[in-house]
Design a protein that fits this description.
single chain, 181 residues, mainly alpha, Rna Polymerase Sigma Factor, Chain: A, Arc Repressor Mutant, subunit A, 2 domains
Length: 181
């Protein structure tokens, strides 16, 4: 339990919030953010990811507010939601194909001619001519299937910036490929 916050006060705030006093949520947020975020930082070992998951935790608390039973302490309920959010994030990440940047990929032992036919050298050349930011956005979105929101979170940018990087990258690749014809 965080210092200066007693369980009965948290329960009272949650009951008020369940009854429609949305101002009570602000006080709950201030009281619970530190412990929730702290646990998520330890679990994820990534402060930015923990911040995102903390926000998701409070969104899920809002959605599940009617399921809270004031006969029980609030903190374990809130932490169970944080744990669930964390586990769902891990599950989603484990199902997403992992993108390996070309410079991190192992060297191929295939002959140059076979590699060119198999992987489309003009496309690879066009990809190499992109900025690293554009290349990452294009590959993550169009090859890896990542959403622009996921790309934005990965690089700490806005979703519109991720879209812009991808669209500019695709346009530049199109120009490069037309030059090669």
């Amino acid at each position: 339990m965080p210092r200066g916050v007693d369980d009965q006060r948290l329960r009272d705030l949650m009951v008020a919030y369940q009854g429609g006093a949305y101002g009570a949520f602000e006080e709950l947020y201030r009281a619970l953010l530190g412990p929730v975020r702290g646990w998520l930082i330890v679990a994820t070992r990534d402060r930015a990811r923990a911040e995102d998951l903390a926000q998701e935790t409070f969104l899920q608390m809002h959605r599940a507010r009617r399921t809270y039973d004031p006969a029980y302490p609030l903190m374990p309920w809130a932490m169970a939601i944080a744990r669930h959010v964390y586990l769902m994030d891990r599950r989603t990440a484990s199902r997403r194909p992992r993108y390996v940047a070309e410079e991190d990929a192992p060297e191929r032992s295939v002959g140059a001619d076979a590699d060119r036919r198999l992987h489309g050298e003009p496309v690879r050349d066009a990809l190499r001519r992109l900025t690293p930011e554009q290349r990452d956005a294009v590959l993550l979105h169009h090859v890896g299937g990542w959403s622009f929101r996921e790309i934005a979170r990965r690089f700490g940018i806005r979703e519109t910036a991720a879209k812009l990087r991808s669209s500019r990258g695709v346009a530049r690749m199109r120009d490069e490929l037309e030059k090669d014809e």
